[in-house]
Amino acid sequence: MIARGHAAAQVTELTGAAEGAAILARGEAEAKAKDLLADAYRKFDEAAILLQTLPLVPPIVREAAAPLGNIDQITIIDPSGASKLTDTVVRTAAEGTAIAKSLLGIDLAKLMGQLAERRENGSKD
């Protein structure tokens, strides 16, 4: 009976050690994968970042402008007339890039400006 209890204790101990080793190995593998991904992102240049983030901007602007799409009829009583509506649409688009900057941490307008400048100068770095 003592031998059986001792054997059961050893099985429990070995099983626990194996499970602990598996959890540790999985955690180390996930950490290594995250490090590799972080290295890959650090190697991205501005163009790659722009390609990753630019597709996110239209849905953000679309959602911000959605209330304007619910307007059936509009009467503008303002000395500046319909240009006020144009200003609102432009401001909404600008807010989209500001929202993207706060969500993504990337200034898309600045990034696009840098890319345009690089293109004008013929530089690839």
Tell me the layout of helices and strands.
Elements: H1 2-43, H2 46-53, H3 57-69, H4 83-104, H5 108-121
Helix and strand string, N-terminal first? HHHHH
Number of strands: 0
Sketch the major β-sheet. none
Oligomer kind: single chain
Question: Helix content range of the residues, please?
Answer: over 70%
Spatial extent as radius of gyration: 28 Å
Q: Between the first and last Cα atoms, what is the distance in angstroms? A: 75 Å
Structural class: mainly alpha
Helix count equals: 5
Low-pLDDT runs: none
Gross geometry: elongated
Question: Which percent range describes the beta-strand content?
Answer: under 5%
The tally of structural domains comes to: 2
Provide the residue-averaged pLDDT: 80
Give a written overview of the molecule.
The chain has 125 residues and is mostly helical. It folds into 2 domains: 43 residues; 81 residues, no CATH class. It is built from 5 helices and no strands.
Give a short synopsis of this structure.
The protein is an all-alpha fold and 125 residues long. The protein contains five helices and no strands.
List keywords for this structure.
125 residues; mainly alpha; 5 helices
